[in-house]
Task: inverse folding
């Protein structure tokens, strides 16, 4: 398959997953599937969820279909669980912070407002990037495509994109997914 055909297949898979998995927190999100070059996506493992985009690399598109579908389901899990909302709020806060900093007159009021905006941004970023978000996205993906497929995708991701290296978090994610896959098979 060429890149266009792979993207079309991924879009069909994405639409199918979105129709099966509820979008509880990202109320207005209707993200598009976007393909970004590998050089931009490498540090993210080839996929990333942003409020308006679910970004994949060509390397993820070329993954085995079950792996690609599980990765798409995992990234959709970040959007469906509202993880992308926090980053969006933080980016809006950053823009407001910059605007207020540039336009604020001297005095105590505007610096105080800036500090409040910074605090909200920090909380939003910390919440969005907390390690438990990966476990939550895994659970959504397992609901959509099954825990065995998500575990397979995580192993593929580790072997293909990270030279087989696994962090403690990744090992714990695999342990949980394997246990859930065993329960699903029983």
Result:
């Amino acid at each position: 398959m060429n890149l266009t055909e792979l993207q079309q297949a991924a879009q069909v898979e994405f639409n199918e997953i979105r129709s099966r998995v509820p979008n509880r927190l990202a109320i207005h999100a209707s993200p598009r599937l976007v393909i970004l070059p590998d050089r931009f996506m490498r540090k993210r493992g080839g996929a990333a969820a942003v409020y308006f985009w679910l970004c994949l690399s060509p390397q993820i598109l070329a993954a085995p279909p079950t792996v690609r579908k599980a990765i798409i389901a995992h990234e959709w899990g970040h959007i469906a669980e509202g993880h992308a909302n926090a980053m969006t709020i933080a980016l809006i806060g950053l823009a407001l912070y910059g605007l207020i900093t540039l336009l604020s007159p001297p005095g105590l009021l505007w610096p105080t407002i800036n500090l409040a905006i910074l605090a909200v941004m920090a909380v939003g970023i910390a919440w969005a990037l907390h390690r438990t978000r990966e476990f939550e996205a895994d659970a959504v993906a397992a609901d959509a495509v099954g825990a065995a497929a998500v575990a397979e995708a995580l192993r593929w991701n580790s072997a293909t994109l990270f030279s087989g290296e696994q962090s403690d978090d990744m090992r714990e994610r695999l342990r949980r997914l394997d246990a859930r896959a065993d329960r699903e098979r029983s």
Notes: Residues 3-84+130-185 form one domain. The chain has one domain: 3-84+130-185.
